Each structure stands twice: as C-alpha cells, then as structure tokens.
C-alpha cells in the first residue's frame, strides 16, 4: 500500500477498538441508550467490509456480478429505510423512492461518460447515490410519519376545510419531509471549508490530483442533491397517495 493510504496493522485495529469503546462509553454515560447499537454496528461494519473486500475483486471484473451487487445494495437500502419508516409491509415501497432517486442520476453519469463505464468506477458511485437516497428516504419517511401521527388534529382540520387526503398530506408534510435534505445541503454548502468528504479524500489517497479530487467530489455532491431530492419527493407522494399510511391508520 502506498504511504498516502491508511495502513492496515495492529495499530490500526487498536485505534478502531479505542474509538469504538470511547463512542460506546460516552453515549452510555450520557444515558442515550445506544451504546449497544454502536458496538453491534461496529462489529457488523467490520464483518461486512471484510466480506465485501474479499468479493469485490471478483465482482469488479464482471458486469453481471456488478449488476447483482448493485441490486443487493438496493435491497439492503430498501430494508433499512422500510424499518426506519414503519413496521408495515407497505413501507417496503420505500424502495421506489431509492431507485427513483439514485437510478436516473447514475444512468446520466454513466451514459454521458462523466464516469468511465467500467465496474470499478460505477460501483462506488452507485453505492454513494444509493446510500444518499436511502438516508433521505429514511429521514423524510420518518418525518412524514411522525407529522401525520403528532399533528393529526391539523390533518383533520385540513380535511374539514375541503382538502382531499392527498392534498392534506402534501400541505402538512411538505416542510417536514424537506428537512431530510438539510444534511446534504449543509455538506454541499460547507465542502472544502468545514469538511473534505470521502470522494475527495479517496481520489487523493488513490494518487489523483487535487483538481481531480475536487471534480469528483463536486459530481458526488450535486448528484446526491438530485438523488435525494427525488427520493424525498417520491416518499411524500407515497404517503399522499396512501401507498404508505401512518401507523395510527394502519394498513
């Protein structure tokens, strides 16, 4: 490995263990009740990345395997968002938002040659876009669900004023759903000033120039805004059309 990369060593493992235990200890002392989740998430991350690292060398040489791997990303992202939004079976329709958000952006990037049409370039971009769409779907879906439950009186008031259900959902939940875009907006606004995100650092560690790193990160950030914006819109429509309903309503 080049000297610019993270060195895999005993020290690396010790640092990860110390950081994990520190995060768990701090949250436990604060009474946040998530210390077990931090430990299990870390163990899962180590196991999953070990498996992924082992199979990527094979996946990235075959388009069929690459497509299957991207499909697996979508399935896992859908399951994650569905679990965050609701326990209802209908919450699995959140996958529509993830695909509708990430799919067109990835297709545009690859079709125009902005990113080389080869697996080793497509898979990381696909993962970033699917992950961003998943986060936006989870956050917006939870915001809409909480709004429909917590502001039920306002929803019924809108109905009494003559709003149909779909219009009432859009009117009441549009702003809460939009808050799911705040993390992506903040990251885009502050890039280079507060943070140097993963794509930028990755290109630099891979030996690319700062200009290449900046161009790659800009593509990722703008692509994420597009993907997440579409995902949030689709989530709002899924609730407005009754595909996903508030837990109080059931379904």
What is the approximate shape? globular
Rounded mean pLDDT score: 87
Q: With helices defined by DSSP (H or I, 4 residues minimum), what is the helix count?
A: 10
Helical/strand content category = mainly alpha
Helix content: over 70%
Sheet having the most strands: none
Count of strand segments: 0
- H/E order of the elements? HHHHHHHHHH
Which segments are poorly predicted (pLDDT under 50) over 5 or more consecutive residues? none
Q: Assembly state here? A: single chain
What is the CA–CA distance across the termini?
A: 53 Å
Strand content: under 5%
Radius of gyration: 20 Å
Topology:
Elements (H helix, E strand, L loop, with lengths): L9 H20 L5 H25 L3 H23 L8 H18 L7 H32 L1 H9 L4 H14 L3 H9 L7 H8 L4 H31 L11
Helix pairs in contact: 1-2, 3-4, 3-5, 4-5, 4-10, 5-7, 5-10, 6-7, 7-10, 8-10, 9-10
In short:
Helices cover 75% and strands 0% of the residues. It has 251 residues and is mainly alpha-helical.
């Amino acid at each position: 490995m080049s000297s610019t990369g993270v060195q895999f060593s005993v020290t690396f493992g010790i640092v990860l263990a110390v950081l994990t235990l520190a995060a768990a200890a701090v949250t436990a002392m604060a009474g946040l009740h998530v210390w077990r989740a931090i430990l299990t998430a870390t163990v899962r991350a180590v196991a999953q990345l070990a498996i992924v690292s082992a199979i990527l060398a094979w996946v990235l040489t075959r388009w069929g395997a690459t497509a299957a791997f991207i499909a697996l990303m979508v399935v896992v992202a859908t399951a994650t968002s569905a679990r965050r939004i609701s326990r209802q079976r209908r919450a699995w329709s959140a996958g529509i938002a993830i695909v509708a958000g990430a799919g067109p952006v990835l297709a545009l990037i690859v079709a125009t040659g902005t990113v080389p049409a080869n697996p080793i370039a497509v898979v990381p971009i696909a993962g970033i876009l699917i992950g961003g769409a998943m986060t936006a779907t989870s956050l917006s879906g939870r915001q809409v669900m909480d709004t429909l439950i917590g502001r039920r009186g306002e929803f019924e008031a809108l109905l009494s004023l003559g709003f149909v259900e779909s219009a009432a959902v859009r009117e009441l939940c549009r702003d809460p759903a939009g808050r799911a875009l705040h993390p992506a907006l903040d990251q885009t606004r502050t890039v280079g000033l507060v943070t140097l995100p993963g794509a930028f650092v990755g290109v630099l560690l891979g030996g690319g120039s700062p200009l290449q790193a900046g161009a790659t990160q800009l593509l990722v950030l703008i692509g994420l805004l597009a993907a997440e914006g579409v995902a949030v819109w689709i989530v709002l429509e899924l609730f407005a059309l009754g595909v996903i309903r508030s837990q109080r309503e059931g379904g």
